[in-house]
TrEMBL record, chain A:
Keywords, sorted A to Z: Cell projection, Cilium, Flagellum, Membrane, Transmembrane, Transmembrane helix
Protein name: Flagellar basal body-associated protein FliL
Transmembrane segments: 20-46
TrEMBL record, chain B:
Protein name: Protoheme IX farnesyltransferase
PROSITE patterns: UBIA
GO function terms (MF aspect): transferase activity
Species in which this protein is naturally found: Caulobacter ginsengisoli
Keyword set includes Protease: no
Gene name linked to the record: ctaB
């Protein structure tokens, strides 16, 4: 298996864990921004003439 | 003010750092108390708030507290490495580079303040920004290594979360919000000095001028009693300002009596007179320091019970006792 970062198994596992944590944080942040935007715009946001 | 370590490059490799090491930089245990007091402020504001907005507001306060903790761990890595209580932290252990703790702190500070402002209001965001700056700059970089009043003044940072929560919910901070701030502010000195009485060896070794190190144990014990005598009436005050109900009054009065008794015992004790009173762990002490240990432990319980009583009363719909101060504390609006 290629080892581009020249790291041990333990380091690769730690890097994967860090990457997943960052990915999860970003996804949660995006979802929060979306939900907060909807809440702040109010329930009638779609009820308007196009 | 001296600051040798934070600007020295980290020698350790962080290739093996786990994501939990970065989480530890945010001091999750301290964060939980911040969340609890901020939630109490938010609920006590008594204004209807969308639960999602409320959740985001509390999240921003928690992340802001974590950010300031990370900045603290970056700056204090040199003394953390020499103290038993803190030497296992990620930066002194070499698991995370100091500059990474700094970066995490700055990024999370910016995100939490901006998100708070855009989600709730800019009063709450401004208070959050002030709290982070006060803890990371005024307390950590200046007061902590300079004056024995470090935790007295610096305690303001830990005391502000209820006001931030209150502002997030209502857009204002009436005197009742500041009363909650005052409770935590006045609670901080007896709480920390009780701990410092039996951990002063650590502080002395690293040159942090905690009260027992600078003024001695007897003066510290006297000041613990003095602050406790001021604290308890302030803890009782919400029962007459239209904030606390009968449960709060009972908790604050009974708990306050126990607090004063324990503070009196510390005053009469020899806690802090002899070095090396601490065994392993925060609560494991030799006989002379037991009174200080008891006050330290009870102070945490007392503060938790006070805020829990307010929360329970609000959620259970128990009306506060009559406001004897008119609109002065509850706000004119």
């Amino acid at each position: 298996m290629p080892n581009p970062f020249n790291e041990t198994d333990e380091q690769a596992k730690a890097r994967k864990g860090r990457s997943l944590a960052i990915a999860l944080g970003l996804v949660v942040f995006i979802i929060l921004i979306f939900v907060v935007s909807i809440v702040n715009m109010g329930g009638a946001i779609a009820n308007r003439p196009l | 003010m001296t600051k040798p370590a934070a600007i020295t490059p980290a020698s350790a490799s962080t290739a093996s750092a786990l994501w939990t090491d970065y989480l530890q930089l945010l001091k999750p245990r301290v964060m939980s108390l911040v969340v609890f007091t901020a939630l109490t402020g938010l609920v006590c504001a008594g204004k209807p708030i969308n639960p999602i907005i409320a959740f985001v507001a509390i999240l921003c306060i928690a992340v802001g507290a974590g950010a300031s903790a990370s900045l603290n761990m970056w700056f204090d890595a040199d003394i953390d490495a020499k103290m038993r209580r803190t030497r296992g932290r990620p930066v002194p252990m070499g698991k995370v580079a100091g500059v990474e703790a700094l970066t995490l702190g700055v990024v999370l500070s910016l995100f939490s303040v901006m998100f708070m402002g855009m989600t709730t209001n800019w009063l709450a965001a401004g208070l959050l920004a002030f709290t982070i700056l006060f803890y990371a700059v005024i307390y950590t970089m200046w007061l902590k290594r300079w004056t024995a009043q470090n935790i007295v003044i610096g305690g303001l940072a830990g005391a502000l979360p209820p006001a931030i929560g209150w502002a997030a919910a209502s857009g204002s901070t009436p005197l009742n919000a500041w009363l909650l701030v005052a409770i935590i502010f006045l609670w901080t000195p007896p709480h920390f000095w009780a701990l410092a009485l039996y951990t002063s060896d650590d502080y002395a070794r690293v040159g942090v001028p905690m009260m027992p190190v600078v003024k001695g144990a007897a003066s510290t014990r006297r000041q613990i009693l003095g602050y406790s005598l001021v604290l308890i009436p302030v803890c009782l005050a919400p029962a007459v300002t239209g904030l606390g109900g009968p449960a709060y009054l009972a908790v604050s009065a009974l708990g306050g009596a126990v607090f004063l008794l324990l503070a009196w015992r510390v005053f009469r004790s020899r806690a802090g007179d002899a070095p090396g009173e601490r065994e392993e762990g925060l609560y494991d002490v030799k006989a002379a320091a037991k009174d200080a240990r008891n006050l330290f432990a009870f102070s945490i319980l007392y503060l938790t019970l006070l805020f829990a009583a307010l929360l329970v009363e609000k959620f259970a719909g128990i009306a506060p006792l009559p406001n004897l101060t008119g609109p002065f504390f509850s706000g004119l609006a």
